[in-house]
Each structure stands twice: as structure tokens, then as C-alpha cells.
Amino acid sequence: MLVKKIKLKNFRNIESAGLEFDNKMNVISGENAQGKTNILESIWLFCGAKSFRNAKDSAFVRFGEKSGKSAIDFISGGIEHTAEMIFTDKRTAVLDGKTLKNPGELAGTLSAVVFSPADLSLVQEGPDKRRRFLDVSIGQLYPNYIDILRSYGRAVSQRNSVIKEYKYDPSVAIMLDVFEEEIAANGKKITEYRKKFLDEINKYLPSIYSGFSSGRESITSLYVAKTEPTVLLDELKKGRKEDSFLGVTSAGPHRDDIELLINGISARNYGSQGQKRSVAIALKLSTLNVINAVSGEYPICLLDDVMSELDEARQKYILNHISDWQTFITCCDPSSVERLSGGRVFTVKGGGIV
Length: 354
Ligand SMILES: Nc1ncnc2c1ncn2[C@@H]1O[C@H](COP(=O)(O)OP(=O)(O)OP(=O)(O)O)[C@@H](O)[C@H]1O
Ligand SMILES: [Mg+2]
Hints:
binds adenosine-5'-triphosphate, binds magnesium ion, alpha/beta
């Protein structure tokens, strides 16, 4: 995937701007609150996504204006495309001259992997964030996985509502049998998909992370299944009594996690800020490689505010050792830009490119 250029009009704080991008590295530099993230967001929206800041569509229109507009030229699957987006209180998208029913239909035509500061939660928060990372990435590659997840989630909710009755009324066991069969069957599939995806990630993660840390640190990522699929059905049955008091399902892949270790030690519990950030970025960059391996094309890479908390060597690695795909990266510190060899730098001030 390659974004050639983007034009913005009354998009967020940008009155009017046109940017022609480098095929590899694009640095969007400037002080705080000038419009750097807004530019990344304008590209991201063409991937059919919602704002990565959870904004309403009306928030894209520049204050005091009635509408905003963005237009992009990009190459996907070897074909040149143009797309436009018109923002009012809602968004309308046009792809190659055709108005789409829903901007979400753009998904897949232009695809991106994005890192935003909120993605640090992937390393430093609870297991649900890491499961979500797996589920979203796998769902992007294998839409069938989303159906499996949905059926699994439904069976867990059904079991949770019936299990509460179990302590008063053992006859509900007939229903539990059905739900548990379904949890075990889909749970097995989910675990297999996740393990396979993490195996793919692990083909890239160690070398990317080692590059980040100039070879000083090694990373290990392991899938931790709370209950192995082979014994899941048994565990569900054994756990009925205890689960009935709590109204939960305590076994299954909705309780699994990824363990991330730096030099054998938990990144979540012991990692420094820079290490945690490096792990989260390295996971995203590995995902990009996996998507390329499966689909035959690299997505574009949007990195918002990755430079902060990284030392000079780590910044240099991001700026100069990522050459297989097109990257868009925001940064505040002008000295970061001095570490760039090649690529293009855009300096943003007050919503304009200077
Ligand atoms: N609809 C809008 N109309 C006008 N201005 C807006 C709109 N939405 C956001 N802004 C403003 O755009 C400014 C720049 O936002 P942006 O998030 O792009 O900054 P940034 O350059 O990434 O800064 P930082 O380095 O702090 O991340 C903010 O001050 C924000 O108030
Ligand atoms: Mg920003």
C-alpha cells in the first residue's frame, strides 16, 4: 500500500493543506497542538475506520465551518485509487468516483497498522487488552474468526445467566450441557487461531525488538491458556458449582493472556517506560509483517507519538531501519528529525504545513 498524497480542507484545525508523501518515511513534526495527529487521523479514516480517538464525525469539521473535506490518492493491490471524504455531522465517502453507502466499506482497500499512545495499554494493562489485540488482528486477516468469537461470546453469556440458577435448580444442567459443548468447541478454535497468530508474530518480534535495543535485550511472547482446550469441557463441568455462586464462567479463552518477557522478566511488571513502549511498537510492527505474509501486501504504518520516552538509539532504529513499508510518524522534538536519513519531513504549525 502506498499513499501518494492527501488534501485537507477545514478538517479539524487544518484550514487547507496538501501533502505529497515519500514512499518510505514521512515525519510529521511540530510543537504540541499544531495538527500532527489530525493529519494521521485524516489518513486513518480512509481505512474505513472510526477516529482512533473515538471522536464523533462532527468533530472532524473545523470549528466555525459547516463542512470539511479530505481527498487521497493511493495505490492498493497495484491499482491506483482516489477517495474523498466529506464531513458534516456525518461522514460520506467516495471511492473512485462512487459514493459509498457507508464509509466502513473502505475497509480493506487501504489498510493500516496504527500505533497511538493508548496502545501502551497493550503492555501495561490487564489481559483483556492483549486478547483484544489478538482478536482484532486475527479478525482483520480471517473474517471467519469474528463469527467464531461471536458464537463463543454468546454461549458464555448464556451459560453465565443459567449457571446462577444451578445452585437452586440442578435440572438446568441440561441447558448447561449444550452451552458448554459450544464453549468448548469454539474455545478450541479460538485458542488455535490465537496460538497460530502469535507463532506468526514470533517470526518477526524477536529481531525487531532486538534491533530496537541494539541487541542488548531479547523478547519472548508466549500464549498462556488458562485452560488447555483438550480439558476445557471437563473443567467447565467441574467448575459449575463454584461458577454458580459467582455467576461467571471461569474457564476458557476469555481468560487467556499473552506473557511478554524482556530478558526473561515480565515487561508488564518490571519493564521501564521505554521498554514497554518498545514492546508495544514492536508488536505492531510484527503485525504489519504478518499481514504482509498473509495478504501479500504491507499495510501503511501510522505511528503517533512513538518517539517520546525512547532514547536516541531506539529513535534512530524506528526512523532508519523500517524500509519495507510506508510509514507516517509524528514527533515533537526537532532533534529526532536530525536522526533521519532520507524520507520527507513536514513541519506543522497552527494547522498549516510550513
Ligand atoms: N474540529 C476542530 N476544529 C478546530 N480545531 C480542532 C478541531 N478538532 C481539534 N482541533 C484542535 O487541533 C489542535 C491540534 O490537535 P492535534 O491532536 O493534531 O495536535 P498535535 O500536533 O498532535 O499535538 P501533540 O504534540 O500534543 O500530540 C488541538 O489544539 C485541537 O484543539
Ligand atoms: Mg498528537
